[in-house]
Fold Succinate-semialdehyde dehydrogenase (NADP(+)).
Amino acid sequence: MADLVLSRGFINGEWVDAIDGKQVDVVNPSTGELITSVPDMGKEESEAAVVAAHAAFQEWRTTTAKQRAVLLKKWFDLIVENADALAKLLTTEQGKPYKEAYGEVLYGASFIEWFAEEAKRIYGDVIPAANPNNRYMTIKQPIGVVAAITPWNFPVAMITRKVGPALAAGCTVVIKPGEDTPLCALAMVKLAEQAGIPKGVVNVVTTSRPAVVGDVLCRHPLVRKVSFTGSTPVGKLILRQAADTVKKVSLELGGNAPFIVFDDADIDKAVLGAVISKYRNAGQTCVCTNRLYIHDAIYDEFMEKYTQAVKALSVGDGLVEGTEIGPLINQKAFEKVAALVQTAIEQGATLTLGGAGHDYGAQFYQPTILADVTEEMDIAHQELFGPISTIFRFNDEQDVVRRANDTPYGLAAYFYTRDHARVWRMSEALEYGILGINEGIISTEVAPFGGVKESGSGREGSKYGIDDYLEIKYLCHGI
């Protein structure tokens, strides 16, 4: 792992410090120990990265799709070869259990492989002409410099899901990784450099001042596309900042995912799906279950089995074998989770399990279950981002659809039923971009990922994921 722990930013093919020499510490959330320090970059470094990416774009855009595919495939191979070291680094700086981290590395690598293949399938069209003296065609061209602003909760996969299609399309990239997890970004770019990706094509700006760097990336006239994964309030700010230069913006924002279990569901399967969806990464995912709606007829059975399954989860350091729940990312996140639980109890929720910090360490929170939750409680309208289950009752299909949709968010939703007619009714009625139907794990590189309403715009992954990095040019040819 040591060879992949880097302490400098990466601009124009050079490993560089901040101009003023300032650094920001990267801390292991499980132990509180210092891992290393990275440059605390700001406006000047961000501008330099954009200029470097723009200069590199002039040549990168002229490479053939096959040439780009070959380089991306080399990068993919290096990621897979170094999967163990990357996973250990990911667990060390982010906290998730090693097994999850290793899965994320392979998941992240899959986007590089997928878009290496998609690079060769960026097709235009020949359009039947309305005028016999004309011929109509379209071609697709790379949009230009891309700003990829990524979160801390998936510090490998959220980079590859943006950088993979950008490079495949012929764009160049400036990455601003999450402030808590810059090391995975730097390690991934080191492997890209080893794969032969030319200088300036991928750049990384590390910082503790995301507003300063983000302002440059969102307003700079040479940046033509911003791809952001993070909170809805920050996504709205990015839209406003990008408006003056009319950039293309894609956003993957917050969620408030319902998990609905009908009375005809396979209860054991639903319990397993709910636990996986809710407690993966200690609940710190944008698509994890937020609100569990359980039908009255099976409520007691579900709760008994679910409580036992959650109680059995092992909390600890992610590098210790068998750990299933790691720490929250920082103390601020811990305090938010603790406050949400306390307020819910004060408003009438029943604490069934957990409800406090864990003895393992300062940023560990016990897997928690709150029953008797209603929509009148504050917690029903929050993205939890912690190991908290909130349990609601229901007994009517139309009512639960209304309640599930009663949120500004629309990223992911889940439901369990064995009624095929209900599957279609629910699939069409739920206002979400992604649905898990009798399934708690939904992410894959081959399917589109993204939300509706205030959960964002655009799609990542799949054949659709490259579209946001391309411009369609119409050619009208007189003959």
About this structure: The radius of gyration is 23 Å. Residues 131 and 478 are 9 Å apart (CA to CA). The chain has a mean pLDDT of 97. The chain has 13 helices and 20 strands.
